[in-house]
């Protein structure tokens, strides 16, 4: 049986469902997925808690299902935060080097300095991500300790959230009997699970199209440079189908998943599907091409919103690796082709990487966020145990990044 200290649990609280994934850290340092649980939720809207009781009960059901599969008891979780209330910006910290060369204390001071920003009282910082360090205006240091100079600077990416937005998610988890070890922005968790280091280095936009929101994270030179949340997602497609085919919303979601396609030209004109109608009347036969004619323009609209956000970020010219689509909506057939046509960039569907154990069960973009939370938690737990031990997906300069994360963690 797994030890309590070896268990890492990611809890993805989405607009339509809660996903709990249990991971176990093996003695050889590998992360194995040993339990998965899902539960529908009706107490969320576009990533924001609207009903505490319903959300809490969905968390309990998802965690219980994962516990039964894993054969363990879950007490603590890593939870995602999403919603259009997430805001981000890049900032810089500057300090003088106290001795002839950069020390741990200098790095700690410059990171603290970088967090000094005019943030409204109703918001809190949930991520302060170091990008690169500069010593005497020389750029490109990932670990500046030991470098000689007189002035140390750091560029950071800061993600903030409404206090209430974070507190409500934490409150639901606590009422479900869980301890929240850390909250993480959804797009950064998803990026952890699906992006490669080469993609981050060359430049890539991670786009997680969920039910209620679309979360974006842009990486360049190996670090995150822009994040954003758009209040559009797959539920808008479902609503269009419900109206266009005059079918109940639950049936519209099922039809989208079973028969949907993002490019209507990929569907045969004479292909029919059975569509239940409202009022308990007999189902009718409708053209599948009609279904896809409803989906395609809405998907195009979502992609236009994404394209505008990327262009507004001023990082559209650095996406050498293109776009990586993940989240449930990324499973729509033809969505990659439509994305390439609209973005004019390579597009791939982001499946989780480096997953052991129940790989066949969780090998889907649907589980990207929950798996990313588990991977973040595993890395954090390993760093807490020893700063010298190699961690899963650990970046270069592991010892330094361990210290940096510890300082940031202690600050919040």
């Amino acid at each position: 049986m797994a030890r309590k200290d070896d268990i890492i649990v990611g809890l993805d609280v989405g607009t339509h469902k809660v996903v709990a994934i249990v991971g176990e850290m093996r003695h050889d340092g590998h992360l194995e997925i040993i339990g998965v649980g899902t539960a529908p939720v009706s107490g969320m809207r576009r990533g924001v808690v609207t009903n505490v009781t319903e959300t809490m009960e969905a968390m309990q059901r998802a965690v219980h299902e994962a516990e039964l599969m894993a054969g363990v008891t879950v007490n603590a979780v890593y939870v995602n935060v999403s919603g259009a209330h997430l805001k981000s910006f890049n900032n810089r910290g500057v300090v003088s080097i106290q001795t002839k060369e950069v020390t741990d204390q200098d790095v700690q001071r410059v990171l603290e300095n970088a967090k000094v920003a005019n943030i409204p009282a109703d918001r809190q910082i949930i991520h302060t991500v170091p990008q690169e360090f500069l010593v005497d205006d020389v750029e490109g240091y990932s670990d500046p300790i030991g470098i000689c100079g007189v002035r140390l600077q750091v560029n950071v990416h800061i993600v903030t959230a409404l206090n209430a937005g974070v507190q409500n998610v934490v409150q639901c988890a606590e009422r479900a009997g869980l301890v929240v070890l850390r909250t993480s922005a959804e797009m950064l968790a998803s990026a952890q699970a699906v992006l490669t280091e080469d993609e981050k280095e060359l430049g890539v936009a991670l786009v997680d199209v969920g039910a209620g929101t679309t979360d974006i994270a842009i990486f360049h030179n190996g670090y995150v440079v822009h994040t954003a949340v758009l209040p559009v997602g797959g539920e808008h497609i479902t609503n269009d189908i419900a109206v266009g085919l005059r079918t109940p919303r639950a049936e519209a979601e099922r039809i989208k998943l079973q028969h949907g396609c993002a490019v209507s030209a990929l569907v045969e004109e004479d292909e029919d599907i059975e569509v239940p109608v409202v009022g308990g009347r007999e189902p009718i036969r409708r053209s599948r091409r009609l279904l896809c004619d409803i989906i395609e323009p809405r998907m195009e609209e979502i992609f236009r919103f994404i394209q505008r956000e990327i262009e507004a970020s001023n990082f559209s010219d650095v996406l050498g690796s293109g776009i990586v689509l993940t989240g449930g909506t990324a499973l729509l057939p033809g969505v990659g082709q439509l994305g390439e046509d609209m973005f004019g960039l390579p597009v791939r569907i982001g499946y989780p990487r480096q997953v052991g154990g129940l790989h066949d069960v969780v090998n889907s973009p649907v589980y990207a966020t929950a798996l990313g939370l588990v991977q973040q938690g595993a890395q954090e737990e390993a760093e807490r145990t020893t700063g010298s031990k190699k961690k899963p997906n650990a970046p270069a300069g592991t010892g330094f990044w361990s210290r940096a994360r510890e300082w940031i963690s202690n600050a919040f």
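The first strand starts at residue 7 and ends at 13. The mean pLDDT is 90.
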